[in-house]
Structure to design on (341 residues):
């Protein structure tokens, strides 16, 4: 099992949340080994019990959320984010990097320090979201890394996600293209071009493209992969998160307003918490698909529980060996795209 590198200074909650989450993950997973990047004077006393399962890279420098990503990566070479990415790049025993820091800085650092898989134009964020079908999730990409995309880049997102799903055991993942309607004629020119290209790949047996989909269809479990540019993918994701918070806050208001509702809540409380944990917390951690090594981004407000979850997720992606699969798949696809590639 390769080591996971954790940026302990990134995110809104900083070192306390990162450290608490890391300790819980170490206790839950005996195979887990970590490289913790942060203030060694604080970290060392709390992780001494784990012996050589934990390595510490000492720094007190962090890249703030509002700093310009490229400038920060180039100038703050002693920051926890840069030092962590460098550990991932140069060490064969490190398989993934996890951070709750600035999305822009993590992506830029991934580009500059780790590099892209051969043939990949742009890496994409690919969170998993729940569906009405028990045990089923769909991948959404891109979810915010690339605001403007070409049709070819959308096709590449689909191919990368397809290889991810196949690597996890799904034989023919269903790929849908996010749109305002299911008809081929709907959408802007980029989406129409992407639809044509994906249809061509589907006819060649390289991908299981089911056509345009509307957001509600994804939550009903009709697809396994939803492809979008980073702008609309991020709008999709944040709208989903906002609607979820609205529903739960509204339920709390309804429960507080009547005695009978409060009594009912006593019976439903446990089930609602389980539902939230199993269904609604799935978007906490996601990797940048298309980088040479696994870079996992957590929510900026990640607490200790979400840090533990992100580290467990990182353990699962380390051993997928996606690089070769993605490189080979893109090489197969390129001739079919012709001059568009």
């Amino acid at each position: 099992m390769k080591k996971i590198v954790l940026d302990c200074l990134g995110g809104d909650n900083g070192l306390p949340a990162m450290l608490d989450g890391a300790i819980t993950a170490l206790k839950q997973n005996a195979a887990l080994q970590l490289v913790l990047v942060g203030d060694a004077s604080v970290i060392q006393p709390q992780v001494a019990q784990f012996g050589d399962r934990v390595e510490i890279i000492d720094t007190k420098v962090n890249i703030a959320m509002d700093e310009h990503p490229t400038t920060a990566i180039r100038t703050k070479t002693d920051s926890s984010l840069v030092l962590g990415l460098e550990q991932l790049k140069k060490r064969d025993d490190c398989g993934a990097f996890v951070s709750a820091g600035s999305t822009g800085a993590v992506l830029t650092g991934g580009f500059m320090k780790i590099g892209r898989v051969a043939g990949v134009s742009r890496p994409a964020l690919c969170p998993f979201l729940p569906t009405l079908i028990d045990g089923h999730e769909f991948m959404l990409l891109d979810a915010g890394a690339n605001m403007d995309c070409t049709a070819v880049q959308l096709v590449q997102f689909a191919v990368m996600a397809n290889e991810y799903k196949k690597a996890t055991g799904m034989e023919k993942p269903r790929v849908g293209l996010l749109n305002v309607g299911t008809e081929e004629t709907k959408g802007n020119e980029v989406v129409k071009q992407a639809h044509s290209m994906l249809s061509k790949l589907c006819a060649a047996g390289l991908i299981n493209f089911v056509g345009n989909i509307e957001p509600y269809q994804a939550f009903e479990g009709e697809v396994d992969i939803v492809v979008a540019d980073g702008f609309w993918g991020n709008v999709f994701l944040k709208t989903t998160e906002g609607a979820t918070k609205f529903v739960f806050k509204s339920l709390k208001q309804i429960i507080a307003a009547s005695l009978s509702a409060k009594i009912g809540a006593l019976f439903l409380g446990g089930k609602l918490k389980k539902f939230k944990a199993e269904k609604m917390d799935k978007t906490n951690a996601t990797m940048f698909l298309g980088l040479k090594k696994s870079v996992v981004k957590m929510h900026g407000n990640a607490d200790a529980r979400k840090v533990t979850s992100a580290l467990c997720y990182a353990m699962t992606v380390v051993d997928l060996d996606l690089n070769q699969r993605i490189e080979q798949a893109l090489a197969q696809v390129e001739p079919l795209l012709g001059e568009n590639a």
The chain has a mean pLDDT of 91. The first helix runs from residue 14 to 28. The chain has twelve helices and twelve strands.
